[in-house]
Structure formats: C-alpha cells, structure tokens
Design a protein that fits this description.
The complex is a heterotrimer of chains A (630), B (234) and C (260). Chain A is an all-alpha fold and 630 residues long. Chain A is built from 27 helices and four strands. The longest helix of chain A is centred in the N-terminal third of the chain and has 31 residues. Classes of the chains: A mainly alpha (630), B alpha/beta (234), C alpha/beta (260).
Chain lengths: 630, 234, 260
C-alpha cells in the first residue's frame, strides 16, 4: 500500500514537467492555431542549455538562476523562430505548419549532437533539494515534492495571467479571432510572438527542471512530444486545465503501467486515450473546433479524369520506365525500385489527404505493418514471396481498421496528432515485443523469389505494383465513393444533409489508404530483405508527407511526382553528408515556404494562367466567395 | 474631408476584386455603401482598414495617408471597423469584449466608457458578465458596435448592421446610429436593405462588381429609380 | 388527413433554459409556412429538431403520419425532408452538375460504389433538376464560380434530390438582392405546388414573408405567440410590439392600412 502511494507521488512529480510542456503547446495552439511540433525540440534545448549553465554556475543562486536563464534563452530562440518562420505561414493550411515545425525539429536534432555530442549527459543535483524525505517508511526525493507543488502553482499563475490581466484577455480574444483583435487596434504580431515565447518558455522550463532527475539525451524531444500529444488530445487542445489534468492521468498511468505491463506500458495510456476520445472527441476540457480547415479542397478547379491524349502520355511514360532495366546498373535499379515503392506509399497517403481531406501524420504505421505482415508470413509460415505479398498487407488493413475507427472521429490537427500517436504506439510495440518482432534487431532474411531476386526482376515487380496501385487509387477518386469522400471534405454540413455518413466514408478511405501503404511496405520488406521498427517511425511518415506536399496537395496524382523527386533527392543527400537531418529539415522548411502548392500544383497554376478562358467570371466568383466567407 | 479613399484596387491571388474605388466622407456624415451580395462592399471596408493584403490606392484619414499602415495602426488613429457577422469573442464576457476594444482617449473625439455604452444599449447593461456566445443576434450586434466604440473612433465603418436581425431590433439599431451621429461621429454603413439605409443616411454610393457606379444624396437616388433598379435589383 | 407535417408539444431546453416550449403546428402539402421571430427565439432549434439533428426533450414530430422519434438526420432525410442552409454549403471542388449528382447517388444508395465513373451516373436526372431551377446553362461550371443567387438555386436543386415531401429552408434569401429574393421564392412556391411539397422557412425579410408565405407563425422565447395569414399576423399588436416594430423596414404596401 505504501509502495503504491509512493509510486503515485513519483507519478505526480513526472506530471509537473509534462504539464509545463503540454500547457505551452496548448497556449501556442490556442492563439496561433499552430501545433508546434518543435515543442519537443525546445524542451530538449531547455535541458541542454540548463545542463551547460548549471555545470558552470555554482551554488543555489547559480543553479536556479541557470534553470531560469536557460528557459529565457530558449524562449528567445522560440520568439526568433516565430518571427522568422511562422509569421510567413500563419495563413497556410495546418499541415504545412506542422511540417515546417517538424523540419525545425529535425535540424535541432543534428545541431544538438554537433554542439553537445551524442553521449547522455548527467547534470548536477538541485542545491538544497538533493536529499530525500521519509514518507510512509519510504524515501521520496525532496526534488519530487518540489515538482509536485510547482505544477499547481504554475496552473494558478497561468489562470491569473489569462483572466486578470488585459494581456491575458487579449490572448483569449485572439484565440478565437486574431484578425478581429487587430481590427480593434491591437498589434497582434507582438501578441503572437509573446504567446509563442511564453509557450516555449514553459517547454524549456519543463526540460530544464528534468536535469536533477534524468540524463539529458538527444532523443528526448521525440519521446516527450508524443507523450505531450497524448496529453493534449486527452485534456483538450487549447485548455490549460485540461493539460494539467491529463498530464496527471498520463504520468500516473506511466507510473503504474510499469508495474503491470512493463513491456508495453504505452498501451495503458493508449486505452485511456481511446476511451476519452469515444466519450469526448475534443478531450476532457476541449471545445469542438467550429470549422477545421480541410487539408485540401481550396481549389475552384474541379478534378477531371485524364483525356485520351493524357492517357497515351502516361502509357508512354510507363513503357519508357519499363525499359530502364536494359540500360541501368544494379545499384540504380535498386534505387529505382525503392522510389517506385515510395510512389505507391505517397499515393496512398495522398488519397486520404486530398480526397479524404485528412492529413495523417502516422501513415508509416500501415507501411510498417504491411512489412511486418509479409515478414511474419516468411518467418513463421515459411511462405513464398508471392503469398507474403498478398497476405502481408492484410496486417496494414487490420491496423487501419482498428486505428482508423478512432481517428476519423476527429479532424484537422487532432486527427494528425492522433494518427501520429498511433504510429508511435505501433512503433513501440515493434520495438519492445522482442520475442515476435526481434525488437531493434528486426527480422532478417526476407528474400524475394528467384525470378524477382535480381534487381531487374524486382524493378519490374515494383513497377507493376506501383502502376496498378496508383491506377486503382486514381479510379477510386472518380468513382461514386470518391465523390462521396470529396463531398464530405468540401462541406460536411451539406454532405450529412444529403444522407452521407461522414465517419463511415472517411473510415473506408482510411482503410483503403492503409491497405495500399501496407502493399508498399510488404514490397519494401523484400527489397531490403529485412524489417525494422523504423519502417513505422515518425521520419518515414514525414517522408510521405513531404512527398505529397512537394507534389501538390490539390492535385489528383501529384504524389507520384513528389515521391520521385523527393526520394531521389534524399538518397543523393544521404550519400553526400553526415548531417542528413539538418539538410532534410532545411529542405522541408524551404519547400513549405517556397512551394505551398507543390510542384504539380505550381505547374497546373501556370497552365491555367496561360489558358485562362474566363478570367472575368473567375474574378466575379472570387469576389462573391470572399464576400460570402466573411 | 474626414475620410478620402481614391483609386482603391484590391486583389485576392490572381483575381482583381476592386477597381479604382473612391469614396469621400465628411465630418459627422452618415454615408451608405449600397450594393448586392458580392458587389464588393465588405472588401471595400476590409481594404480601407488594411485587412486585404494586396491592395493599392490611397486612403487619407484626417489628412494623413494611412494606406501603407498595418491594420492596428489605422484603427489606433480613430478609424473604427465593425465587421459583418459581428465576430464577437464568444468566450469573453460583455465586459471583457469591451476591454479588448479599449484604447486611450483621443482629443476632440467623444470618449466612451462601458457605462456610457450601457446607456446607449440598455440590454447590454443587464448582462455584463454573460459570455458573448450566449447572447442573441441583436445583442451581439450591439456588443460589436459597442466594442468598436470603446476605441473612441472618430469614424466608424459598419458592415451590414441590419443583416439577419428582426425588424424591431433594426429600428433600435437605426436609433443608436443616429445617436452616434449626434455625438459627432462620421459613419459609413454598407447595406442591402434600402429601407434601413434611407432611415439614417445622408448620402449613398452604389457599388457593383467592384466598381463605384453611383454617388449622390439619398434624394438623388430616390429621384433616379432606374439607377436603383439597375444596380440594386429592387 | 393530407397534413404533411404534424408537430405537437415540442419541448427543448439547454441547461435549464427553455429554448422551445410547447410548440404545436401543422403544415399542408403544397404550401409555404414562414416561421419568424426575434433572434434567439428558438427558430434554429425548431428546425434542427425537425430534421433530426437535435433530439427533442418531449413532443412528437410526424412526417406523413410517421413519428421520426429517435431517427438520425440521415434517416429523416430518407423519409423525405430536404434542407437548405442560411450560409450556402456546396461542394466547391465539383461542377454544378456533379453537386446534384452526389446527392442523387446518395439517394439511390450508390455512393459506396468503388467502380465506374461517377460523372456519368444519374446524369439525366441531375440535368432535370438543374433545368427545374433554371441552371441548365451553368451545369458544367465549377460551382465555386457561381454568382450568389445561382448558388442558392443550386442548393434548392440539391435539396430536391431526395424527392422531398418537406423542405426546410433556413433564411433562404439572406444576403440576396430584392429582385433575386422574389425570383427564388416564386420558384420555390411553384415547385412546392407542383410537386406537393410543404415548405417551412425562416426569414427576416418581411417583404419576402408577406409576399410569399401562405401562413406565418411567430415564435418568441420558445413559444408560438401568433399564427395566421400574413395579414392577420402583421395586424397582431403583440407581434408588432415584439418583432415587427413600427414597420419602417418593409414595403409600404405591406404596412397596416394600405394592405388588404
């Protein structure tokens, strides 16, 4: 009994940092409507800078001063990022903002290693709080007690700030309608920067306060951001009180989950999150988002199937690609097969994003599940490649059926965060369930059948699967089902008024996308001859997003072009630099800033500018739309 | 001239929306900007206060060219804007909504306090602690006007103040606007409801497809039914 | 017994506030009934209960004699209740014709088909509906390019796709020029009479109400305070005090004295 109490107290102490980070994320989202993926990076920077300062400054004043100074320094970095990057993309779709901040996260990961090295660092204890007190016959660190008190104190301070000061009232007003705040004479630019700095300060403080408890590592950003996403989904995005309550719930679940299911303690958190989402889709203290901006559907050019000429052009292009094995060497063909596999993966993500209007941040889960499915067939049933390729993707389908059921209850950033959380859960199961998945060592020896063992054969196989897969997805877009999906995306209100079942249609689309991702994943397992948890990692998901984005989100099949361009670029970059994350992150940021409509969207815009037949009509329509949208 | 707008051109992306729009408003005048839905009324207002990013032309307010200033700077000079759809802060109480609009007193211009606004709109005085989201459409319209008045403007752009309101509330709104006029405020309203515009306006402009098509007194408009029929499709 | 819609003792409250109290009325096929009242009187709540979006606390709603209790909006729609919205809601990535086709595909239970090109499905039927509302010449245009008045017509065509018996129109003429208002309401009345559809609409423009409604109901603080012909309603002193005011805001010919 005493043991449980002490465990509960330890959970409360962990909750404090989680709350600080989550409340910062919530406050920033509330006003800027940006889900700051880089929040984990700022948490990590807070810890590193605090480590650097606390090891140089002595005494209690030095220590606490260092903690505060570190948080302020990182907050200033956050403000700088807001001014340089985010101010340019406030009007972009949510997905672009998430991606841009993710790009920053990637860059910070490499920079941290460059500056502080890859080793785990151990900082000093807090002066005066280094000991432990005896509670219920057990020793509880004094520092934990301090953190337990700190949580509610910060909660109270934030409440006072937002309800008793004019600045706080302005922030709450901006949370609902930024433009109106400006139209009442408030300089909203600085309001935003201030809010962003406050949120980053809280994240950095959360990180800095971890120093006396744990080591500082360069992977702490991703682990905390996933937990924080779970916290804000449970508590409700935008609610500080929700972040507080949910942080306690998650921290306690972790504290006790370790005792019950040490292997997969995340499962407990996942189950609670699932229950909360079913009962309250916007979280415990969240409010329904009035109108989530769809990821696509901003265009007024209706989609058309290919004309005969275009069909011929595509057929010629495919035929040309099919002759490549006669000209290219083995390495180039292997790279080519990898690109083709990612064409299918990107096309599947593109389907759920553009036709379904749902931006998934965890699409790699289904790619990885398909890969594991194929690997299981080979390893446990000794199946040949052909059977494994057919059955393997079923695991992706099953995963999409299960996760999708929860995800389609949400939309916009909630959907993105939940898909990410599910992908992380799938990843940690693959990572931790060593008996079945081989854990970090993966499953090896997944080789193709003889006819596809040579690079030429595998290239043709990949080409056939990619062409058929993309073709089927394209056909779906123009089928009645595809129209139903677009109807739901364009106007959920109207779609439901004409008898369409939004959740069901989107669930079906989610499963379709997951299944095609699973097919790509199964093929990938045979290309690599092995399967690893990283197939489901966040970087894989983001690769897919960048491909879709690069291709153009308002196009029918832009992902094909995006995948070819991006994958070729990424493979080339990997061979050129050790700081691939830094370069990749920078590429993502540049793409978001420079090509908001993607390459194919850019080309289409150009085409329509040259051949704009009814300019006047379009202008009148824009005018009507702009006026009506107000 | 209180406000002088000339050669205002606005774009959204590639689309040209406003063409050489010009307006003049004298001190203490009530001017109506008439036009059907989608004619460009809201865009004109939004362009004047700098909420349309791509715009060209000059906006001279109180003798100063404000066309290059950001929205909050224009508003801080005493040019108030009341949007269509009211855009109340739903989570904030009546008092807090007023607090957001508050600005320092401006010399030579009527200064508004919440207490004075409760006199102008007695309904609001009975619900000072009520969140804006729990008020009726008519009460919200009063709140949004009051909120802008808290900035002590010398000129107010009122975008469709009668839209979606019960006739009786619209009559109250007309009274309130005339009271504001008596305080010395210049007012521009955008309207489709000609009945309402006639009750309060001195002069009118008609806008159609982003161009000003008519300018004159309300009596001129009355005397030219063919203009009214052509652009307002009465 | 040709009462299309029968509503009895409808009740709804939110957190102790009565939004709708004891509302009872009926609607005959082929007629237009206007529901007017101050902002916040409960009109939207009534509407949302009629199409199943909100569950009433008490009372019954019968459409063609059938109680719709417990039915989700989709099922109510299948019973023949169409709806248009105050702010137009259309599918902006499709052409005008495709907008109608989607509604028809849904009505005919074909929306889950994954094969075949949707652009050719139900095409003739869609074109028929567009002709009915006078949009034939606009059928192939992206619906994002339509003028506001035409968007409202498109909404009407989409709302007719399920061959409705009852049409709910939430401020159908809001934001339109006076002439467009008259045209849209005339068209609506024509279609309603021809097809035997009952139309219930809310409206703040008294010119439209007095010109086009067969009957008018007035809602105030959740209760019906008057019901009758347009003439009766605008003569009602209570309605004038609560809602109509001094009558400065609608055409003189509708005002007391000059009418009749």
């Amino acid at each position: 009994m005493e043991f449980l109490l002490v465990q509960a107290l330890s959970g409360l102490a962990s909750a404090a940092s989680l709350f600080l980070v989550a409340s910062g994320l919530s406050i920033i989202f509330g006003v800027t409507r940006i889900v700051n993926f880089a929040h984990g990076a700022f948490y990590m920077l807070g810890a590193y800078v605090a480590y650097m300062l606390t090891t140089r400054l002595a005494g209690p004043i030095g220590f606490w001063g260092a903690i505060l100074a570190a948080s302020v320094i990182v907050a200033a970095m956050g403000a700088l990022m807001e001014m340089v990057l985010l101010r340019r993309i406030y009007h972009a779709p949510e997905l672009f903002q998430l991606l841009a901040t993710f790009g920053v996260t990637l860059m910070v990961q490499d920079l941290v290693v460059v500056i502080w090295g890859p080793e785990d660092l151990l900082g000093p204890r807090a002066p005066g709080l280094a000991g432990a007190v005896s509670l219920f016959g057990r020793m509880v660190p004094t520092y934990d007690l301090f953190l337990m008190v700190l949580g509610p104190v910060v909660l109270g301070a934030l409440w006072l700030l937002f309800h008793q000061t004019r600045w706080g009232v302005l922030v709450r007003a901006a949370t609902q309608d930024r433009e109106m705040v400006a139209a009442l004479g408030v300089n909203q630019k600085w309001l935003f920067t201030g809010v962003f700095a406050l949120g980053v300060f809280l994240a950095a403080l959360g990180g800095a306060l971890q120093i006396p408890r744990t080591t500082v590592t360069h992977t702490m950003d991703l682990s905390v951001i996933v937990e924080v996403f779970v916290v804000v989904v449970i508590g409700g995005l935008g609610s500080v009180l929700g972040a507080f309550v949910a942080a306690i719930i998650v921290a306690e679940l972790n504290a006790f989950g370790i005792l019950i299911l040490p292997q997969i303690s995340l499962i407990m958190v996942f189950l609670v999150m699932a229950v909360v989402l079913v009962v309250r889709p916007w979280g415990l203290f969240g409010k329904a988002e009035s109108a989530p901006r769809p990821a696509a559907g901003l265009t007024i050019r209706p989609w058309r199937p290919f004309s005969t000429a275009e069909r011929v052009a595509v057929a010629v292009a495919v035929a040309a690609v099919a002759t490549l094995p006669f000209f290219l060497g083995n390495y180039a063909l292997t790279v080519g097969a990898e690109i083709l596999i990612f064409v299918l993966f990107a096309a599947s993500l593109h389907f759920i994003m553009t036709v379904g209007g749902l931006a998934s941040f965890g699409h790699a889960a289904y790619f990885g599940l398909g890969a594991y499915g194929a690997a299981f067939m080979v390893k446990f049933l000794g199946a040949p490649m052909e059977a494994a390729l057919l059955v393997g993707p079923v695991l992706g389908l099953v995963g999409a059926v299960l996760f999708g059921w929860f995800c389609v209850r949400l939309s916009g950033v909630y959907f993105a965060m939940l898909t990410l959380a599910f992908a992380q859960i799938a990843w940690s199961i693959a990572f931790q369930w060593v008996d079945v998945t081989g854990g970090d060592n993966g499953l090896l020896g997944i080789w193709p059948s003889t006819w596809a063992a040579r690079p030429q054969g595998f290239f043709w196989l990949a080409l056939a699967v990619a062409v058929i897969g993309v073709g089927l997805l394209r056909m779906l877009v123009f089928s009645p089902f595809g129209y139903g999906l677009r109807a739901v995306r364009d106007s959920t209100l109207r779609a439901e008024a004409i008898g369409l079942d939004r959740a069901r249609l989107q669930w079906a689309a989610f499963v379709v996308a997951g299944t095609f991702a699973g097919i790509a994943g199964a093929l990938y397992a045979f290309l690599k001859g092995s399967v690893f948890p990283d197939f489901m990692g966040i970087p894989t998901s983001v690769d897919g997003l960048v491909m879709v984005l690069l291709g153009g989100i308002e196009t029918v099949s832009g992902a094909v072009v995006g995948a070819v361009l991006y994958k070729a670029l990424a493979i080339w970059l990997m061979s050129q630099t050790d700081l691939s994350k830094l370069v990749l992150g920078a590429v993502i940021v540049v793409v978001v800033l420079a090509f908001p409509k993607g390459v194919v969207g850019f080309i289409e815009d150009m085409r329509h500018r040259w051949f704009a037949p009814k300019k006047a009509a379009a202008e009148a329509a824009t005018l009507a739309k702009v006026e009506a949208a107000r | 001239m209180k406000l002088q707008v000339s050669n205002l051109n606005s774009h959204y992306g590639p689309a040209h929306i406003l063409y050489d729009v010009g307006l003049e408003v004298g001190a203490g005048e009530v001017v109506a900007l008439l036009g059907r839905n989608g004619a460009g009324k809201s865009t004109t207002f939004r362009s004047i206060v700098g909420l349309v990013p791509q715009r060209a032309g000059t906006v001279v307010f109180d003798g100063e060219d404000v066309s290059a200033l950001p929205t909050y700077e224009i508003v801080r000079r005493g040019l108030g804007y009341v949007p269509e759809d009211r855009r109340i802060f739903n989570q904030l109480t009546v008092e807090e909504n007023f607090m957001v609009g508050r600005q320092a007193p401006r010399p030579g211009v009527a200064t508004w306090s919440p207490e004075q606004l409760y006199v102008l709109f007695p309904n609001l005085g009975e619900m000072r602690k009520r969140p804006g989201g729990q008020m009726s459409g008519g009460e919200q319209q009063m709140l949004t006007i009051g909120r802008t008045l808290m900035g002590n403007p010398s000129l107010v752009l009122l975008d469709e103040p009668s839209e979606g309101l019960a006739p009786k509330i619209v009559e109250q709104m007309a009274d309130a606007i005339l009271t504001m006029k008596k305080q010395g405020l210049s007012i521009v309203i955008s309207e489709q409801n000609l009945h309402f515009a006639k009750l309060i306006s001195d002069r009118a402009y008609i806008i159609e497809k982003g161009r000003i098509r008519f300018s004159g007194t309300m009596a001129d408009l009355e005397a030219n039914p063919e203009i009214r029929d052509a652009y307002l499709a009465v | 017994m040709s009462l299309l819609l029968q509503v009895e003792n409808l009740e709804k409250s939110y957190g102790g506030v009565h939004a709708v109290r004891g509302v009872t009325f009926s609607l005959e096929a082929g007629t237009l009934l206007a529901l007017i009242g101050p902002n916040g009187a409960g009109k939207s709540t009534c509407f949302n209960m009629l199409n199943g979006q909100i569950k009433p606390d008490a009372g019954t709603i019968r459409i063609d004699g059938r109680d719709i209790k417990g039915l989700p909006p989709r099922a109510v729609w299948r019973l023949g209740v169409g709806r248009t919205f105050q702010i137009t809601a259309t599918f902006s990535s499709m052409t005008v014709r495709e907008n109608v086709q989607v509604a028809l595909l849904s009505f005919h239970g074909l929306i889950r088909r994954v094969f075949g090109f949707a652009g050719t499905a139900c095409r003739a039927e869609a074109e028929g509906l567009l002709e009915l509302v006078g949009l034939t010449s606009q059928a192939e245009r992206p619906c994002g390019e339509l003028a506001y008045g035409d968007l409202k017509r498109l909404e009407l065509a989409v709302a007719l796709a399920n061959q409705p018996r009852l049409l709910l129109m939430d401020e159908p003429t809001a934001g339109m020029a006076p002439k467009e208002r008259v045209e849209l309401m005339r068209l609506t009345a024509e279609i309603a009479r021809e097809k035997g559809i009952g139309v219930l609409f809310t409206e703040h423009d008294m010119d439209v109400v007095f010109e086009h409604a067969d009957a008018v109901m007035v809602l105030n603080r959740g209760q019906l305070i008057a019901r009758g012909t347009p003439l009766e309603v605008r003569r009602d002193p209570q309605v004038r005090a609560i809602y109509l005011g001094e009558g400065l805001l609608y055409d003189a010919r509708h005002r007391e004295g000059s009418a009749a």
